[in-house]
Amino acid sequence: MAELKYEITQKLASLSTNAKGWSLELNKVSWNDREPKFDLRTWDADHTKMGKGVTFNEAEARELFTGLGKFLEQ
């Protein structure tokens, strides 16, 4: 299996931390030297291990922002 290469290019928000010290974070991450995307997932304290997550390009992130804004206005 090929090694997964990643670089957190910008830390945007830490949403929560669990009892084991892993934090749910929103970051911009470059995967395998590609253009950075918005990335929401859990990370260990030194960012060497990660949980499953989801990535968004800018258009998807804008749609998510709009949808959350509408929902939270209710």
- Output the structural class: alpha+beta
Major sheet strand order: 1-2-3-4
Biggest pleated sheet? 4 strands, antiparallel
How many distinct helices? 1
From the alpha carbons, calculate the radius of gyration and give it in angstroms. 14 Å
What portion of residues is helical?
10-25%
How many angstroms separate the termini?
Answer: 47 Å
What is the mean pLDDT?
Answer: 96
Shape: flat
Q: Percent of residues in beta strands?
A: over 45%
Low-confidence stretches: none
How many strands in all? Answer: 4
Helix-strand string:
EEEEH
Organism: Periweissella ghanensis
InterPro entries: PC4-like, PC4_C
Pfam family, one: PC4
Protein name: Transcriptional coactivator p15 (PC4) C-terminal domain-containing protein
List keywords for this structure.
single chain, 74 residues, alpha+beta, 4-stranded antiparallel beta sheet, 4 strands, 22% helix, flat
Explain what you see.
Residues 20-64 form the Transcriptional coactivator p15 (PC4) C-terminal domain. Pfam families: PC4. This is Transcriptional coactivator p15 (PC4) C-terminal domain-containing protein. This protein has 74 residues and is an alpha+beta fold. The chain contains one helix and four strands; from the N terminus they run ββββα. The protein has one helix spanning 58-73, and strands at 6-17, 23-31, 37-43, 50-56. The chain has a four-stranded antiparallel β-sheet with strand order 1-2-3-4.
Please write out the topology.
Blueprint: E1 6-17, E2 23-31, E3 37-43, E4 50-56, H1 58-73
Antiparallel strand pairs: 1-2, 2-3, 3-4
